[in-house]
């Protein structure tokens, strides 16, 4: 075999190369773990956003019902609708 061939290269791993490869494997594992955590957090965020939107809807309905019962006009919007009304 030639001194520069792949078989010789693997057999002649230096301590530095071994450390670098170990560090690479550790970083790749950490990266994969981070990606899984990020995916879980994004799913939680989407679920929480859906819940908050449902709550805003329920709050608006209750405000309307209370205003109708009190004989008042339409209620002030809450959440994103209030933001749009203030800026628009």
Produce a short descriptive summary.
The chain has 88 residues and is mainly α. 80% of the residues lie in helices and 0% in strands. The chain has three helices and no strands.
What does this structure look like?
Helices cover 80% and strands 0% of the residues. The protein has 88 residues and is mostly helical. It has one domain (6-87). The longest helix has 56 residues, at 15-70.
Helical amount among residues, as a percent range?
Answer: over 70%
Q: What is the H/E string? A: HHH
Query: How many domains, as an integer?
Result: 1
**What composes the largest sheet?**
none
Work out the radius of gyration.
30 Å
The CA-CA distance between the termini, in Å, is: 76 Å
Low-confidence stretches: none
Number of helices: 3
Keywords:
88 residues; 3 helices; 80% helix
């Amino acid at each position: 075999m030639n001194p520069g061939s792949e078989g010789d290269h693997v057999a002649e791993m230096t301590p530095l190369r071994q450390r670098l490869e170990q560090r690479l494997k550790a970083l790749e594992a950490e990266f994969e773990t981070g990606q899984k955590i990020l995916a879980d957090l994004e799913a939680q965020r989407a679920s929480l956003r859906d819940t908050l939107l449902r709550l805003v809807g329920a709050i608006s309905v209750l405000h309307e019902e209370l205003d109708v019962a009190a004989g008042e006009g339409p209620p002030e919007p809450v959440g994103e609708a209030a933001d749009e009304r203030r800026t628009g």
